[in-house]
Design goal:
Layout (H helix, E strand, L loop, with lengths): L35 H10 L19 H12 L6 H15 L14 H18 L6 H4 L3 H5 L8 H13 L11 H18 L1
Pfam family, one: SMP
Keywords: Repeat
Protein name: SMP domain-containing protein
C-alpha cells in the first residue's frame, strides 16, 4: 500500500484584476408630485393605507361578489357542481356586471358562469362513467376575483336573486345552507351591518 502525503498542496488562486466599473451610480433628484389618479392607484395597491400608518376611512371594506363566491368555494369546495350552483353563480355574475332589472343577462367570456356551466355538463358525463366530478373548488378558486370585471359589493338583492335561482334549479326546491346563495347572504348581512356601524 502506498503512503499518502500528510499535507495536500493547493495552488494559490489567481489574483483578480480590479473591476473597471465598481458599480452603478444613480443620480437622484426630486420629481414632480403625482396626479390624484396615480396617487389613488398606489394607495389601493398598499391596501388603502396612506403610507403614514394611519388607516384610511374611505377604503372600501365591503365584501365583493367575487369574494363571496370564493368564500362559498372554501365552505363547500369538495362538493360537485350542480345545476343549482351554476344558476346561483349566474345570478351573482349578472349582478356583478350590472345585468337584470330589464337588462339582458350578460355572460362574461371565460367567466365563472361559463366554468360552472361547463362543470355541470362535465359532471353529467362523468357520472355515467363513474369518475370524479368537477368540484366547486375547481370552478370558484382565487380566479373569481380576477374573472369578474367589477368590485361590486354584495347586497341583499344580489343574495336574494342568487337564492331564488338556486332554489328554482334544485330538484327539492331548496338552497344549500352552506352554498353559493348562503355565502352571498352572509356577505350581504356583513355589508349591511358595516354600513349601519359607519
Amino acid at each position: 500500500m502506498e503512503a499518502r502525503p500528510s499535507r495536500i498542496e493547493c495552488p494559490e488562486p489567481p489574483k483578480e484584476p480590479e473591476p473597471t466599473n465598481p458599480g452603478r451610480v444613480f443620480d437622484t433628484e426630486r420629481v414632480a408630485p403625482r396626479d390624484a389618479t396615480e396617487s389613488a392607484t398606489e394607495q389601493l395597491a398598499r391596501g388603502g393605507s396612506r403610507g403614514d400608518g394611519a388607516v384610511d376611512e374611505t377604503y372600501d371594506t365591503r365584501v365583493k361578489i367575487a369574494e363571496a363566491l370564493e368564500g362559498s368555494a372554501r365552505a363547500i369546495g369538495d362538493k360537485p357542481v350542480e345545476p343549482s350552483d351554476a344558476a346561483a353563480i349566474r345570478a351573482a355574475e349578472a349582478s356583478a356586471v350590472g345585468a337584470g332589472a330589464g337588462r339582458a343577462a350578460v355572460v362574461v367570456p371565460g367567466g365563472v358562469v361559463e366554468r360552472a356551466q361547463a362543470a355541470v355538463a362535465a359532471n353529467a358525463r362523468l357520472a355515467l362513467v363513474g369518475e370524479d366530478k368537477v368540484t366547486m373548488n375547481d370552478v370558484l378558486t382565487w380566479e373569481a376575483t380576477m374573472r369578474l370585471p367589477t368590485g361590486k359589493a354584495v347586497t341583499s338583492e344580489v343574495a336574494a336573486a342568487a337564492a331564488e335561482a338556486e332554489a328554482a334549479n334544485d330538484p327539492r326546491g331548496k338552497t344549500n345552507p352552506r352554498g353559493v346563495s348562503a355565502a352571498l347572504d352572509m356577505a350581504a348581512k356583513h355589508n349591511s351591518e358595516h354600513a349601519q356601524a359607519s
